[in-house]
Design goal:
Shape: elongated
Number of domains: 2
Bound molecules: zinc ion
Mean pLDDT: 82
Oligomer: single chain
Helix content: 40-55%
Structural class: mainly alpha
Radius of gyration: 31 Å
Distance between the termini: 103 Å
Strand content: 5-15%
Low-confidence stretches: 185-194
């Protein structure tokens, strides 16, 4: 009997070691599976979008691309429309949080232009230019306005349509009372501010 136990003991020990290793491996695999199942949090809210057009209000220029809602720091969106000729729309969005926090939000945020035949590649730089020149007072001359917009920085093939856009915008801005671009009070502006 004792002789037999002596022969079996190493085999039992080896089996026990194998069993423990197997259990550990299975546990690790289960833990890994669980980690993979954790859903990426989705951020829900709204995106303000508008095509660019020469009669945009300042608020339209600056609110374009604004994200707000439950998942964002800013909870309330602007009251739309901003005013006459406003084409802004608030579109519901739901994105993986990673996309928002990495700042790589692209979907639905492409800049488009409402002017027929306007080159699509020129829309993003045009928006940058509109933001640059959209100060509260309008420059006294068209040339000063075009210089502020840095028309010369646009690609050679884009300069003619961009110039036409900016000329029409300048006429629109000059026609505003007092030469000021109307900026309707938004929710983020302090109450009672002039
Ligand atoms: Zn608007």
């Amino acid at each position: 009997m004792g002789m037999r136990m002596q022969a079996i003991a190493p085999t039992l020990l080896a089996l026990a070691v194998v069993a423990v290793l197997l259990i550990l491996a299975l546990r690790r695999a289960a833990r890994r599976r669980k980690r993979k199942d954790v859903p990426i949090p989705r951020v829900e809210g709204f995106l303000v979008s508008t095509p660019l057009h020469p009669r945009m209000l300042r608020a339209c220029v600056f609110d374009r691309g604004l994200l707000y809602g439950r998942g964002f720091r800013r909870k309330e969106g602007p009251a739309l429309p901003h005013g006459p000729d406003c084409q802004c729309r608030a579109t519901p969005i739901a994105l993986p949080g990673t996309e928002v926090f990495s700042g790589s939000l692209r979907r639905g945020n492409e800049v488009a232009c409402a002017v027929p035949g306007f080159p699509a590649d020129a829309c993003r730089p045009l928006l940058d230019a509109l933001r640059r020149v959209n100060a509260e007072s309008v420059p006294p001359t068209l040339d000063a306005y075009l210089a502020l917009a840095d028309l010369a920085s646009f690609a050679a093939g884009h300069q003619a349509p961009v110039r036409r856009f900016l000329e029409e915008r300048y006429r629109f801005l000059k026609a505003q009372p007092g030469g000021h671009v109307p900026a309707p009070a938004g929710p983020e502006r302090p109450q009672g501010a002039a």
